[in-house]
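Incident review: delayed structure delivery

Summary: a single-chain prediction request sat in the queue longer than the usual turnaround. Root cause was a stuck worker, restarted by the on-call engineer. No data loss occurred. The affected request and its eventual output are reproduced below so the record is complete for anyone auditing the incident later.

Affected input:
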Amino acid sequence: MKKAFILSILIIPISFFGQTSTKKADTYFTNYNYNKVIEKLEGRANLTTDAQRKLAESYKLVSNHSAAEIAYAKLVTAADKTPNDVYAYAQVLKMNGKYTDAQQQMDIYASLNASDSRAQLNQQNKNYTNDLLQNKAQFDVKNLAVNSPEQDFGVTYFKDQLVYTSSKHDINAAYRRWNGNNLPFLDLYTGKPDSSGEITNSKKLSTLNKKYHEGPACYSKDGNYVIYTQDNYNKKSNDGTRNLEMMESTFENGKWNTKIAFPLNNKEYSVGHPTLSSDGKTIYFASDMPGGKGGVDIYKATKDSSGKWANAINLGDKINTEGNEMFPFIHESGLFFFSSDGRPGLGGLDIFATEIKNNRIGKIINLGNPVNGAKDDFSMVLNDAKTKGYFASNREGGKGDDDMYSFNLLKPFQFGKIIKGIAKDEKGNILANVTVNLFDANGKIVNSITTTANGDYSFDIENPEKYLLSGKSANYFDANNTLNITNNDDVIVSNLILEKNPGLSLVAIITDAKTKLPLEGVTLTITQKDNTPFDTYTTQPNVNYRKALPTNKIGDKLFYKIKLEKQGYLTNEVEFNYTITKSGDINIHEALNISMSKLEIGGDLAKMIEIKPIYFDLGKYTIRKDAALELDKIVKIMNEYPNMVIELGSHTDCRATAIFNEKLSDSRAKSAAEYIKKSISKTERISGKGYGESKLKNNCACEGAVKSTCSEEEHQQNRRIEFIIISTE
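Output delivered after worker restart:
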């Protein structure tokens, strides 16, 4: 295949040759006669680095990959080797199935050329081969009987027929050979597909074929327009290369009109591998024209108002790498296939798929085994129903140099979803250079990018789960969006709004009262003094609550009512009074206890809400007014949690007799419980029990002959009422 498309599209002329003593080999290489290059250089000692490179590349281009591996292994030991030599060696190792060795060379390449997208893509996932080698039962692949011992590839649909490219020839007929592979030149053939995918009644497409290369081709949906690749018959480039061009023709009045040149042809570079959108208004093609990303890039062009093809537009970094991208195919559904040797793959060219919708390129996936293998895999097409199609490969076990393969698509392509948006400030101004992090449900960073000059960002995701988008930029507060990816939309739009930091902001860190660690999922509701809403917020993992106060200044007095709620925790309500004395953060958590207590069996509700001590008159158990105020707090909580069951336990210090203390504490406990029962539903949810001095909190016992030396403060610790949680359900 490479030898076929070519001259400059698949086989990129090597520009690093210098002066050597092997001038004849230079000439052969320039003329694509790689077998002659090998004949001149093979076995020679003391080759220059330049000549060694030619030899290695020639072995590769005639598909002698074992010899190419040996030649490249020697080349990369040279002091004046280039990063591209290392990359080429890694590619050949992959083509020989030596993926571990290839990865080692890619690590070296990354250290030599870290800015190269091929290095970056590889370093992002070094273990990709294990996944790609697995047969995921998506494709049923079959080699076609029509394949010849030469080259057969580039299937395209034409009405009820198939058109393909081949260098096959009649055994007894005279034919021209191309130097690149010593095979006949390419011609276009047509045939009928049968129910099994085989191509029957194959014959030459005489209306398009000439004496040099023709193919591949592409037809419009209605079959009345064709555009195809051929050698530039009329002009060579300034350096003597016969590049590739494309020709067009339309079917009118029962015949094909005279072929005309594609307006973007240029004798100085090649264009080819056309594919048309279903409406015929957009063409995608491959070219090595100047200004591209790498060797061969994929471009598109659209028809202007007069029906002429407009300027070529490079598909950009989303598709193209510093390597070679070619053989595009666009399906009417938006599915887009192409081949690349610049992306992580199994060797040579691999076939990749993505979706192009509304001029946006989606996530790119490598189709893996059995479509891709260690050699070159390319020119994939898919039928309208998305059930079957064709591709080509020069893999082992075929009938010739390049073979055509049919496939049944057993499972649809899965591309995941896209999260995209624009970073703006609160006034709607676009923000460039914002760092946007994407966190998964476990708080792990999935990906991180920087917004463009247009403020946009985009992430490809695979799993429908909870994500957090976080935007960071100097002089702005962080912006955080929580996304639950549960709908059927392919694209989820979530813009980040970053607030300008005015120097004053309200900050809160809400923690678990027991562990002291920040809590996520807490709903924080803040109202102002007049009960008007101020803010509502749900805490995120590793993100503190922060609210800018752009209208406040030093000297202002703040008053907020703050309510904290979380499932399984006791609701916490506080009032925040604060006078601003300096610029910067106003930390609520430093002024107030805004921790939250988990509702656990055995927990003391009195500690959770920090009620004041409940006092009784000496020797009595009547509920005093000050005690009633504290018991009302318990009533409030039990009404908020209608299934909560409480045991109210009353305790005394050691003074007086144990019998007296037990009886008095029991009377007080029951009295307090009865007070609460009057204001709650299901009065059986609370019971009172007196423990007297049986559960002292310290060593302040004084029963009988034991005399206590404890202070009044120590005795006070034992005089208490506890509200122990028995159940919350």
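Verification: The chain is about 20% helix and 30% strand.
Action items: add queue-age alerting; document worker restart procedure.
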